[in-house]
Amino acid sequence: MKQTIPVYDICTISAGHQHQDLLAERLEGYLKKNYQRVHQQHGHNFYHLVLFTKGNGEHTLDFTRYTVQPWQIYFMTPGQVHSWHFKEGTDGYVIHFSASFFHAFLMQHQYLEHFPFFSGNSKEQVLNIPANGREEVKAVFEQVLKEAAGANEADMIRVLLLQLFLLVNRVTVKEPKKAVPQQKQLVLRNFRQLINKHYRRLRLPKEYAELMYITPNHLNALCQDLLGKTAGELIRERVLLEAKRMLTNEDLTVTQIATDLNFEDNSYFSRFFKKYEGITPEEFRNSLI
């Protein structure tokens, strides 16, 4: 089966870049070199973040469209898709780092998943930096650029990025949240990982609950408590997201997509898609043109 959309690594998305684990640049210069490539929907096999300091236009993240605003920051995880539609004068900072960049540095390889903006849920990944945090956030970006352009001490850059993530998480929290026990966070994280692995084959919460050695009621209660959604909703959202990604590939018929996603037939897939998206797969595909 053909690739649904282009998926870039750090070197191929930025012509002439030689480091496969890290890229840090001012956004204006990056856009001049890469705008034509990133204007269309594409994916990454690396983590990606952008802070806008000026400009306007739009960008999409997993098919959700956002208006560019100064001091808006967004994050992407490997596997997500996006596109840019900026107007002239947009500037800020862009950073790419590989999925393995922190692995040898952190004992907890899944540490980044503790931050909501690395959840893979686009609604949690686009944030506005409040006025009282802007200079501090900007200073960290400037220091990352300085290190990347100079001695390029990888561990120093790792420390600075962790500082950035902690700072952004702190200044963008709108209200104090109740402390969530680590065990609950772990169960939810494991559930999301299992969905990503099995969403084509397993569609029922009870099937995931069995894999996790918990009851379906416990799984649903946890999802409702932490996310305000049922376990079934999380599964459906992942199936729909993959369907949208595949619909960007004009070489794949709706029937082929339905088969790949393990639907009984094309009509069942179309009814499922329209029920939760409000439009048919064909209408969604046409809306991308």
Automatic annotation (TrEMBL):
Record's keyword annotation contains rRNA processing: no
Instruction: State a single Pfam family of this protein.
Output: AraC_binding
Which InterPro entries does its entry note? Answer: AraC-bd, Homeodomain-like_sf, HTH-like, HTH_AraC, RmlC-like_jellyroll, Tscrpt_reg_AraC-type_HTH
What PANTHER family does UniProt report for this protein, alphabetically? ARAC-FAMILY TRANSCRIPTIONAL REGULATOR (PTHR43280), TRANSCRIPTIONAL REGULATORY PROTEIN (PTHR43280:SF32)
Gene Ontology terms, MF aspect: DNA-binding transcription factor activity; sequence-specific DNA binding
Key word Transcription present: yes
Regions crossing the membrane: none
Domain HTH araC/xylS-type as annotated: residue spans: 189-287
Q: Identify this protein by name.
A: AraC family transcriptional regulator
What keywords appear on the UniProt entry? DNA-binding, Transcription, Transcription regulation
